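## tool: complex_structure
## caller: assistant
## args:
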Amino acid sequence: MSLSSHVHEAIIPWTQFAKELCDPARVHEKPEALDDLRVLDCSSGNFAGLFASSILAEFGAEVIRVEPPTGDVARLFTPQGLKHKDSGLAYLVEARNKRHVTLNLETEEGRLLFARLARHMDVVIESAVPGQMDAWGIGYRQLSVLNPRLIYLGLSTHGQFGPRASRPIPDYDITDQALSGVPYVTGEPEGQGPPDSSAPTKQGNWMAWYVGGAFGAFAVLAALHWRWQSGRGQFIDLSPGEAEMRFSDAGVIWYHAAQRIQERVGGLHIQVFPYTLIRSKDSYSFIAGFSDVNFTGLTNIMGKPELKEPFATTKDRILKARQLHQELEKWSAELTSDEILDRVQDYMLNKRGPGTVATAKLNRPEDTLAEPHWWERGVFQKVEDADYGELLLQAPPWKMSATPPRIKWACRPVGADNQFVYLKYLGLGAERLQALKSAGIL
Amino acid sequence: MAGSNTQAYFEWTRELFDRSKIFDKPEALRGIRVLELTTLVLGPTTADFLGEFGAEVVKVELPPGGDTMRYVTPEATYWKNASLGFFPENHSKYHVGIDLHSDDGKSLFKRLAARSDIMVENFRAGTLDKWGIGYRQMRDVNARLIYVADSGFGQWGPFSVGRASYDAVAQTVSGMIGITGFPERPPILCGIFIGDWFGGLMAAIAALAALHHRDRTGEGQFIDFAQSEGLIRTLDWTWVRQGLTGQDRGPSGNRDQALVPADIFPCRDGYIAIAAARDAEFKGLCRAMGEGALASDPRFATLEARQKPEHMSALLDRIRGWAAKQARAELEALGAQHGFAAVRVATAKDKHDDDHLRARGSVWEYEDPLYGKLVEQGPAPKLSETPARIKWAGKPVGWHNHEVLARLLGLTPAQIKGLEEQKVVGQWAERPGAKPPTEWDGRTRI
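## result:
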């Protein structure tokens, strides 16, 4: 770095400095953190596996997806059966930067080819029922003999060991969410509304699968650091349900300490209040001001200092949350969500009093897409894909100064990279591939 | 699958992952030091996940109150003078109290950063830069430092300026709340701090990717991570559908619109989640229901047919009627027998009492020198060679002042005492959340 650029960087405002440091427009000029890594992802119908390999691919790994000759069933997972070209919509999101080959693991020869590919790999990701890969001779037990440096990630609901491990059930997001216990504490309590909706409620997205994928990628990277020191790979056993369970706040420890079971409270909260959703003139807003000083700030913004005394302590506010919630809604009913945000920001930016108050208008996805903030930060990207045309995708969320993650392409059709991958790793030419295809092996 | 092979496999995995052998194995991130200057959940989890895999985490708090999470606990109830909300994201850390408003405090903090590999902070954009201990200053102190800035809206962009954020702000602005819950009902919050926890994990991933880069090149870097952007990333097909069809996504209750059937059903003794998207699994479910004919009904025979909204509704109604008459354990056993997924919606007690989760360490019981027996959610990924572990529970503000300042900075007891007198270094306030349990003997600081 030249002296003048260093001086420039030292005097410009922080936000400008940070933006120049991580400018999304310059991502492709910088190196990739994981471009020495090769990953074989043979997960099946499993977005935890797909998200794990997406993360590694975003950071530069060469990821090879192994699909059965008819394609991964994940390509069929799509709302209302909607297709774009030959693909369901969800798959288009998690195929980024990946090469796609076919291989029939139901055949002996297919499994042999898989083992030969795995010798060249740093990471294998699978989501078969525990014991299946092992019974096929391509589990960690066998592959690690051929490749002791291999890091092997197996995803399953109940894991590879423990009393329930041998139950052969497929892994799904909704059952993983159930296992985590998060739906039990999410949603309206019984009696608050119609019976069908006053029930444990899942996150609308595939939350457990995404948590499982992220934890899988995290564990792979921890194992990679260990391999850097020791030269040895290892077996990673991950349940997406247990992964989301790790997030369940004070759930288990509260039961341990006080034999209390956390129940549902809808839009209220049992640990902090106000920390809640309130109805506004035109929508809903989230609003928070839960510590003593922040609650003072909130009552100042509301112009209702008289609320301070009856709700003086954290405990008062949590135990009388319903009553306080009504007070908040009396105030917010007269304001639009944007007006609430304006009042809070006026108080915060002009330092009109003590306390930190946070608010946000309840967004539907189209509202989020309409906000320039996310576009300026490169959170959304319109990817021009050679096979699938223009796709609106959520980009990797990290901004990094030295090795930023990136999207290179969105998706490839089933088997699109057969020639390249089998040539590169196994030296197989077109004629041999054709023979394997005819034999139902590719 | 041959039965005897399968049995041999599970004997092998039981041995490979044996929970009782964890402390006989090495740690993946040994030798990596994390300097944490964070509060609440997003920042502390970033460091905690690294700590579970063996990184040494030095948690710096502003004395005497410390981390705000020390005062966030269910129904504002403290246990042994500690916040139950503070434990789940603060394990095996070294707790140091430094007043960063003073020049001497800043200088101590910089010296700690010089000895660290990863620094994590979660202040509003530009705050630490203003204080003189942000990335611009730290990169001059330690070129190998990986600097993780966690926030709600990122370090630049219209929303980054002066706007406070919490987990639920991220849930709100990301669209996550907008697609969760039941149509025609008021919006609901996720029952846990999902944006914080997921954000902490995502930030930790970036730190490890940066560590790999540093292993190869020796170069540190800056990471800007916004938790709202983390949640946006998780909304699966929401954005691509909007781009292709212009169709906005709203809430659809518990039924999955893309996988059919997948829903949560009330049953005799609670709630159960059932999923059977592949056609073979669906056949198994139909057999279990005693309605084998459903599997060949053209409305239901293929996933593509079941995805049609009217077919989906008819099918889910049938399953709902059947499940209502069964118990959770019966449905789980039928799933295992017929090859579809059935898992109860777990309560805290279900998890706490579950032998399977305990055998796996996903529910982790341990003995802390200060707090005694604890039972918590344990580390999620199970690694055969370098398993994650919990060593001790979170401690009062400044608990390890002497240990850390002597070991890492070579300060003598007299120097530390001097810093305490000048209020540069400090420990807990005499209030629940910050201070030790009443039973503490006043001496032991393990």
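## assistant note: Residues 46 and 172 of chain A are 7 Å apart (CA to CA). Chain A has two domains: 32-246+412-438, 275-279+284-361. Handing back to user.
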